[in-house]
Amino acid sequence: MLSEQSVPVVRATLPVVGAAIGDITELFYRKLFDDRPELLRDFFNRGNQANGEQKQALAGSIAAFAGMLLERPDDRPDAMLARIANKHASLGVTSGQYKLVHQHLFAAIVEVLGDAVTAEVAAAWDEVYWLMANALIAAESRLYQEAGTADGEVWRSMEIVERREQTPDVVSFLIQPADGSPAGAFRPGQYVSVQAELPDGARQIRQYSLSAAPGRPQWRITVKRVRGAAGPQGEVSSWLHETARAGDLLTVSVPFGDLVLAEDEGPLLLASAGIGSTPMLAMLDHLAATGSTRQVVVVHADRSAADHAHREELRRLVDALPSASLHLWYETGGDAGAATGQADIGALDLPEGLTAYLCGPLPFMRAVRGDLLRRGVPAEAVHYEVFGPDLWLGQE
Predict the structure, then answer these.
(1) How far are the Cα atoms of 1, 191, 342 from residue 7, in angstroms, in the given order?
(2) How many CB atoms are located within 10 Å of the residue 136 CB?
(3) Which residue among 29, 127, 129, 140 is the active-site one?
(4) I want to staple 162 with a disulfide (CB 3.0 to 4.6 A). Which of 74, 174, 195, 297 is the partner?
(5) Helix/strand/coil (H/E/C) assignment for every residue in 67-91
(6) What is the pTM of this model?
């Protein structure tokens, strides 16, 4: 909770800070990387820095957190913090890094806002920062404890035991610990980080959903190649597609992620588009492996049948569940059992009391979520995963 003396200061200055937050975050990253260039090379996603999405996500999270402190002072934005904390844990973030961020972020605030940053204003926004940072530090520490690892010690060597081409742009890898031990437990819907050593010497990190059920000796990740992007976007997916083969070693994190299947008997909606199907496959595989009788409505949208990765596997998993139904939409190229065009949740008969899980491009998830809310599904029953910086933070 924000202190009594800071509330009016933050309330009065939030419009000014909010209006300048884009400039502040851009200058923050420039200062950070000038001071610690290895962070851009080996930690931050160079693609998301180049296209501005990471700056936009940081700006949104700060403004949203400050707004929540003012408007809902007795609440914590747990969904937002959980998503950030899981991403940080998958990268091995530790508490000391928050001091470095504070140093350069507040230097950027002072430089952008100038004389508007009085001692009183600086103290109030310092409080906002550390409320958010300490909440994240505590959440990340709990995640490390649950994973059975020391803070930040998330990496291990894993061997590719199988590579399988799913579509021209999608490949899946079965991986297991290089020492031959079982891959370990995770919750359906979670992801791992993969660290790739690229030709220029950078060690770039990306997250990939675990796309098959837990409880097996190996994990599976499914990687879509990002094509046609200017700059560093797609450099890790391209490296995996071009170079990773059975027998190669990858540096992989333990699993994290807050889009996880609820262990109850309530009805489910699993809605995905494109490569967003991967966490849904793990959920469906888990439901089938455990003999679930839950009512499950599965929705998937893709460009075409040929672009739909794991298409036959999805059909098999749905067929294995006695109370599941599958609804497919392809933009082009008709396919038996699939509609043509954009996914239309409004056309479906949905069960009462469902829990919805969404994954795919933001426009798809916004449309599906909007349809569900209009049909009376409570906002807290709709969960989502974003591949990349969460530009939805603070907009829910």
Answers:
(1) 10, 38, 45
(2) 21
(3) 140
(4) 174
(5) HHHHHCCCCCCHHHHHHHHHHHHHH
(6) 0.93
